[in-house]
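Write out this protein's structure.
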Amino acid sequence: MEQREPADHFEVVVMYRQDEVICPRCGQITNKEHDRRPQRKKDRMLRNKEVFLILMKRRFRCPSCGKVFTEPDVVCGWRRRSTQRFREYLGEEALHQTVRRVAQKEGVGESGDRRCVAEEVGRRLEVRKRVDTPEFIGVDEFSVRKNYFYHTAICNLREGEIMEVIEGRGQKRLEEYGDKLPSPERVKAIVIDMHEPFRQAIWMVLPQAKIVVDKFHFLKQVQAALDKVRSRLQKGEGNSFPFIRN
């Protein structure tokens, strides 16, 4: 309908093409427009400038039952402030770099970007083909919002692909997933962090599998222990290692 280019971004005024919609109350088709209201939707950047779609959202009045309703938003989704393709792009980018970096680059919040990651993982799981139980599995937790809404990702380490994402990070959910594996005896090793419920769940449903602590979390714990020792030595609390002479 219209394009504008202010100094720091682009604006494109758009509207859906269909002239007739179905009333959600009675199911009748109507083309009687009641009013229009602009809604601002964020889209992918163009030439290093932010792009916003100004969607002229129409409301219709049904002549049969009199209900006033808003037309469906199939491109962006119900009450979403960004386009579907922009959210898919954020989710794909955050799978290859940190959420913070993607959020800063695209001018969005980190919590919103984490939701996009979860949506992207869900889309990939829906289209993937079912494969046999792998020999080496990785289990790791992530939060859709920092320190809230934890999920657990289960990966095929040999193929480098996500097998499943389950809600929460508790022992029960992981046990339920392990019980559903088609050939659990094929699993030789599972790589986890030091989350105790993960270890307990593996002992219960996959007792033959070796539990391996992933390198990142192991080194993190070692570094934390070294920092504590260094702090005590700097404060003059004495030698923490009796076999080392001052």
